[in-house]
Design a protein that fits this description.
The protein has 282 residues and is of the alpha/beta class. It has nine helices and eight strands. Strands 1, 2, 3, 4, 5, 6, 7 and 8 form an eight-stranded mixed β-sheet that branches. A hairpin with a 5-residue loop joins strand 3 and strand 4. It is globular, with a radius of gyration of 18 Å.
């Protein structure tokens, strides 16, 4: 009997490039998750995959709308139309409680994909956000797709909160940074991908306002994950060491790929071992 694989993708902005590489590994192994749960960029990548894109196609889409440190002037020129749309998507949303509006961002990423609801996805998806006023985790897995996506990525102070179904919603990472608990009962092998930032030990520099805000959020998320892992653990917990890549530094995605390579190689070995053990058990 074929093993059912569940995939939980955490939040972390540009470091979400790791999620794409994880999907590419699964694609190369001929495996498809039976369920995906995602927070923030994890929800975005999960939805793109569920919409029918392969890991490689998601990577190409992201690279087409970003300027990386490896791009030549010719590469940038060839991307110019997509980059102008990207700039428009990142128009300030200060009046709505955030620096950036999420609506055009999501609209652009999915503009040529024929999906509008969870029912249109090829893989069941669970999207995590947080109700700002009740402080509850809110999980969406049915109905319209885009509002829950916008809510899940609404990092406080960066993206504006989303008002949906009589709730004021913010980034799901505030309550569930890597939502692997949502898939444990629905799969044979559970995979959690944690892309939280790694701090450089011994730094004495006082952070600026923006870094202090996001750094405090990361400290909170780390505490949440430590406590959650005391009570329940996924079969595979992938946490690559990604240094010096901040939330919105998508120009550094090639650095993310390179830094994540050792962890991805170990992930592939661990997954093969899990599959072998599962086969022996049968």
């Amino acid at each position: 009997m074929e093993n059912k694989i569940g995939l939980a993708l955490g939040g972390g902005g540009a470091r979400g490039a790791v999620h794409v590489r994880v999907l590419e590994v699964l694609d190369e192994m001929g495996l498809q998750p039976c369920v995906i749960s995602g927070t923030s960029i994890g929800a975005i990548v999960g939805a793109l995959y569920g919409a029918g894109l392969s890991g490689e196609e998601i990577r190409e889409r992201i690279e087409q709308i970003t300027i990386s440190e490896k791009d030549t002037w010719r590469d940038i020129f060839d991307k110019r139309k997509d980059l102008f749309k990207w700039v428009d998507a990142l128009m300030p949303g200060m009046g709505s409680g955030g620096l950036i509006r999420t609506d055009k961002f999501v609209q652009y990423l999915f503009e040529d994909l024929d999906v509008e609801s969870f029912d249109d996805l090829r893989v069941p998806l669970k999207i995590v956000s947080c109700d700002f006023w009740t402080e509850e985790a809110v999980v969406y897995e049915s109905g319209p797709l885009f509002e829950p996506l916008k809510a899940s990525m609404a990092v406080p102070g960066v993206f504006a909160p989303v008002f949906y179904q009589e709730r004021v919603l913010i980034d799901g990472g505030v309550v569930n940074p890597v939502p692997y608990d949502l898939i444990l009962g629905e799969c044979d092998i559970s995979i959690a991908v944690d892309i939280g930032a790694e701090k450089v030990r011994g730094e004495k520099e006082i952070p600026g306002v923006f870094d202090a805000l996001l750094g405090s959020l990361q400290i909170m998320q780390r505490a949440i994950l430590r406590e959650k892992r005391r009570h329940a653990r996924p079969d595979i917990y992938l946490r690559p060491e990604i240094h010096q890549v901040r939330l919105m530094q998508f120009e550094k995605i090639h650095q993310v790929y390179e830094q994540a390579l050792p962890a991805l190689e170990k992930f592939e070995k661990d997954l093969k071992q899990c599959l072998e053990k599962s086969g022996e058990a049968e």
